[in-house]
Each structure stands twice: as C-alpha cells, then as structure tokens.
Specification:
Blueprint: E1 7-12, H1 18-21, E2 41-46, E3 60-61, E4 64-65, E5 74-75, E6 78-88, E7 94-106, E8 109-110, E9 129-131, E10 136-137, E11 150-158, E12 161-170, H2 178-191, H3 201-207, E13 213-217, H4 225-229, E14 237-244, H5 250-259, E15 268-274
Parallel strand pairs: 1-13, 3-9, 4-15
Antiparallel strand pairs: 1-2, 5-8, 6-7, 6-13, 7-9, 7-10, 11-12, 11-14, 14-15
Length: 275
C-alpha cells in the first residue's frame, strides 16, 4: 500500500539510550520535556500535496534503500510504524488520533553533522525510508491491545552473513506508549514550536490541507554493538521484523530469516536492498 496522501511524522527519543548511541543527544539539550523519559520532539519526513519542499518527495519503499550520494554514515532505525486517522476540531486543531494499523518501519537516517532540523537527516529523496508492504490491523493502543505482545528486531545481511543490528526489544518498552504516547503526539502536533531541531507541525498540517491520516514512526530501538559501529553500504540488505513473542522466540526469527522461510500472517517484515 502506498501512502502518498498521508503525512509522515516521526518521534525522536522514545527509546532510552538511542539518541546517545546515534550521537544526537546533544541536539536536544535545550529542548524542554515533560519528564526524564519523555520523547524529545516529533519531526516530519513526508509532506503530501506540496511541490516546493524537500519533504514533498515521497520517500517510502517496501523493498529498496537508495544510497545517498556523499553519505558514509547511513543507519537502519528499526521502529513500529503506526497508521492513524487524524481528527480535527472546527479550528483545525488535532483532537484525537485513532490507530488503524501497524508494521515494521525503517527510519533510515544519515548521521549528518551540522543539520539544523531532524528532518534534514530523514528524507533525501525516493526510497530513503522503509515501511512493510502491508500493515497489520490494530484494535487500539490501550493496555492489553494486540501491539503489546510484539517485539522489534533488526538485522543487516552483508556478504551472506546475518548480523543483529538493533537490540531485540519489547514494544511495550517504549518510553511513551499507549494513550500517553498518543496524547503527547497530539500536543506536539498542535503546539510544537519551530525552534532548535524541532519544527512547527501545525503549520505543516495547514500547508498540506489537513490530511486525514498520518503514518507515525514511534521511535528507534537501541543498537547492538555491531549496529552502532557499522553503517549501510550498497549491496547490503536491511531487515526490520515485528513479531508476536507468544508465538516466536528470537532464535526462531533469526533461523527463519537465515533460511528465507519466515512468512507468517502475524509477522511484519521489512526487507530492503541497499542500491
């Protein structure tokens, strides 16, 4: 499924330790947060319906990462992607987000020194982001919902060898999750100022004609030692997997990926070739 009419947003700093590993914690020193574990900001990665903005280029692919010219620090960012309906009031303020589906997402990012905004590291053109070809239906994002039982894992396939890239993590270990996360995103969509690395999302919603849906990546997990220090190159394959922990062990996921036999209606797999 394509999402050309859906605004693309991401959550920065929603998994303890990720920003520090990515060398980005210093970018948010001056950002005011609600509490010690709160995410730092939301950022746009795709603005539908525009023509004169670098974020107007549709960046999502379910099978390809197009390697950017001049980049040498390109990393997988394994995340949950949430497809949400956006509800507005008469003044076009966001009043609610209704999650409809979820899937494996790769917020593939350039570690670009000197970037003023988070978005400058996120969308360098077509095939610079990843989302699973089909999303899984979501009942709700309240405690006890379907997504609670999932884990996120990611891998790099290079020269026939499979390397764990992100630490296999429970989705419920996000710093903000359930309604706490949705309420925080709504607040940022309405109130986040254009300052520091953050941007005015309410202004972007207006420019895009108040889209009815958002694809929201809710935060990248921590890297393994290998993932922290190894960057993507053409010829690599990036793998992000969301799987129900009640049905699969991490060892079964790895074995299935190595054998090429991991196909299941309850598993979301994003496999992207770097070209």
């Amino acid at each position: 499924m394509a999402y050309q009419q859906v605004i693309g947003l991401g959550v920065a700093g929603n998994f303890a330790g990720h920003l520090e590993q990515a060398g980005e914690a210093r970018d948010f020193v001056a950002v005011k947060v609600k509490d010690a574990v709160a995410p730092k900001a939301i950022f746009p990665f795709y603005l539908p319906g525009l023509s004169d903005h670098f974020l107007a280029t549709y960046p999502l692919s379910h099978d390809t990462i197009r390697y950017p010219q001049g980049a040498d620090h390109l990393q997988i960012e394994p995340e949950v992607g949430l497809l949400c309906d956006i509800h507005y009031d008469a003044e076009h303020r966001v009043t609610a987000l209704t999650p409809r589906a979820f899937g494996a997402y790769n917020d593939c990012s350039i570690r670009r020194e000197g970037a003023r905004k988070i978005s400058e590291k996120k969308n360098w053109g077509a095939d610079s982001k990843g989302v699973a070809a089909s999303l899984l239906p979501l009942d709700h994002l309240q405690p006890g919902g379907r997504l609670d039982g999932y884990r996120i894992a990611s891998f790099l396939l290079r020269d026939g060898q499979l390397y764990a890239y992100g630490i296999d993590s429970a989705v419920v270990d996000y710093s903000y999750f359930h309604q706490t996360l949705l309420d925080w995103i709504i607040e940022k969509m309405n109130e986040q100022p254009d300052e520091g690395p953050a941007e005015d999302i309410a202004g972007y919603l207006a420019l895009c004609g108040y889209p009815s849906q958002a694809l929201i990546s809710i935060g990248a997990t921590r890297y393994t030692e290998f993932g922290e220090h190894h960057f993507l190159q053409p010829g690599d394959t990036s793998l992000v997997v969301l799987y129900p922990q009640a049905r699969f062990s991490s060892e079964q996921i790895v074995a299935g990926l190595r054998a090429g036999t991991l196909v299941d209606a309850e598993v979301s797999i994003l496999r992207q070739q770097v070209v």
